[in-house]
Amino acid sequence: MSLDLNRKKVVKNAWRITKERDKGAIRIRVPGGQMETKHFAVLNQIATEYGDGTVHMTTRQGFELPGIDFENMEAVNRMLRPIIENLEISIGVSGFDKPKDGYPTAGTRNVAACIGNRVCPYSNFDTTAFARRIEKEIYPNNFHVKIALTGCPNDCIKARMHDFGIIGMAEPQLDSSRCIGCEACVITCKKLVTGALKLHKGKVVRDERRCIGCGECVLSCPTAAWTRNPKKFFNLVIMGRTGKKNPRLAENFIQWASEELVVQVIKNTYGYIDKFIDRSLTKEHIGYIVDRTGFHDFKEFVLKGASINPEARIAQHVHWSGTFYVSDVFIGAPQGDQISR
Amino acid sequence: MSLKLSHQDFDEILGKLRQEYTIYAPRRFKDRGRFSDTDLIRYGEISSIKDMVWNEKSNFSPKEIIFPITQTIFHFTEDDYREPTIDSKKTIIFLRACDINGIRRLDTIFLKNGNDKDFYYQRLREKVKFVLVECQSSFDNCFCVSMNSNTTDNYSIAVRFNSDSLLLDIQDKDLDKYFGGVGEKVNFTPEFVTENKIKVNVPKVAEMPVEMYDHEIWDEYKSRCIACGRCNTTCITCSCFSTEDIFYDTTTNVGERRRTWAACHIDHFTDMAGGHGFRKDNGSRMRFKSFHKVYDYKKRFGEHMCVGCGRCDDNCPEYISFSNCINKISKLVNS
Prior knowledge:
The structure holds two protein chains of two kinds.
Chain A: H1 7-12, E1 15-17, E2 23-28, H2 39-49, E3 56-57, E4 63-69, H3 73-79, H4 81-87, E5 112-113, H5 127-138, E6 147-150, E7 164-169, E8 172-174, H6 184-192, E9 197-200, E10 203-206, H7 216-220, E11 226-228, E12 233-238, E13 251-257, H8 259-276, H9 286-293, H10 295-303, E14 313-314
Parallel strand pairs in A: 5-6, 6-7
Antiparallel strand pairs in A: 1-2, 2-4, 3-4, 7-12, 8-11, 9-10, 12-13, 13-14
Helix pairs in contact in A: 5-8, 8-10
Chain B: E1 2-6, H1 7-17, E2 21-29, E3 40-45, H2 63-66, E4 70-76, E5 81-82, E6 90-95, H3 97-111, H4 119-125, E7 128-133, E8 157-161, E9 165-170, H5 173-176, E10 184-185, H6 219-224, H7 230-233, E11 241-247, E12 255-261, H8 282-301, H9 311-315, H10 322-334
Parallel strand pairs in B: 2-6, 6-7, 7-8
Antiparallel strand pairs in B: 1-9, 1-10, 2-3, 4-5, 4-12, 8-9, 11-12
């Protein structure tokens, strides 16, 4: 009996249509990129019983199990239940009305995170915990949005290639009486970062406008003269992307943003997409919507009603460059040949 | 006099003591540690026993109370100078046996080394009373027993912390008046750690061969040590400082003479005019420090400088272990 498949429904269910007729691949989300290893047993069971015995580790920190007959979709979705219970429902994600049916949507991608301060000495926050909070706020959602969190501006998760990159910032605070003028922080900042520190009369001085909140000064200080403000801050960088038309790195939107502000901006963005998206396309990436409306309309929309913390520094203009394969990619066709759809 | 007190009773006594004394103890500075979401434990003023961290080792030693990280020696104007005044309150420090023994080394350096006593050290030091905090067990990297600094009788009060009470051995008659009519009389004398996991064999001064100075043992530290200086800044016995005249910005003849911690593992130590410097490579810095801690100080003053608190090993980001280094030297000397 030939397969009668609703492709759109299948794709929304986090399954991929593959090259091989009648076989699909299921994608498993791991918000924040960390999970208990017990889930490998489930992945192994699906791959060996229904798949081809392999797993692909995706760039978004999920798992993709290929070679599964579409006729086994229901059975495989049922097997995912303990993973969904543990990685989604238990962190507070609502919208899994029928957990046995697998993932309700796949548009908003897995929220990725570097290993963060649970392990890494450089990280300025718990990236996994914040990623899970964002997952709770925005999933499930059909709109195609990519979000990644990284502990420091080293950006190991490549947050600047995402629609929203969240880069941890630490505000270094100086107890001048503890500074011995050894210049360890000055030299580190000059060689590795932005040169925001200098020695003045035997004590270090910080240029607030140059400081990017990486925390290197705190790490290098032998007397704990530099410590982090316990309040966490973030650099929210926006509209980076890979892809065909104009791949580019995300640019700074709000530096020294609070966690609340970051969450509010991302949540408001879904309303913005809903209002401005080009529905003639199967999907439109958020960055291209911002290209059409302009940054200022985006900024006005996403900051509406947001509680802006006093430390936040918001970009007045953003200039993205990126790669242009052809220089007129954003110039419309002659008015006479407009394609109508 | 020995007493058993509740935490609450002790807090009331602390309240009375604070009228006459500033009280320092290891405190937790939440989220102020080197890595994010970690705490810093260092000395600070306390007003309640709840402020004090008594079941962990502090990252920094109490030396900064009597040998401040930065200290103004005097302020100067065009034709005058003046020493800054200090707080008239006396000082109580809660600290462990190793640190009390460590402060004896600081006393030796600042007060008994040469003909002149260090005025700035002395005026802070002579205000101090010690409250010995009993170590109920040895912490990681401690090797006080090997350095004979696990015990002391140099304290005004010794205290054992229990979760619901405190046992006190009050030796200082000046403090008796604060403890009248409270608590329960008991028999208590502090116990001391008698064994550490880390054991160190220190070579005898007379047996140290001069060849050790140039030995290849120091070569590995050339590349391993990054000269961050944490072993020095956290050490209870490191006492080096630099002195500098600071001229205030707008007037060139007004300023202060300031002394600031300096250390053999930190750049600019012993820099000389013309850009000369001794011990440019980090291996020779390690050698200099090691011999100072376990050889030449003893040759001069009769006891080792190192007290085995192990803070250097706790804090080294490159996992250089001083206790392992001493044992390596011993092995070479004895073979």
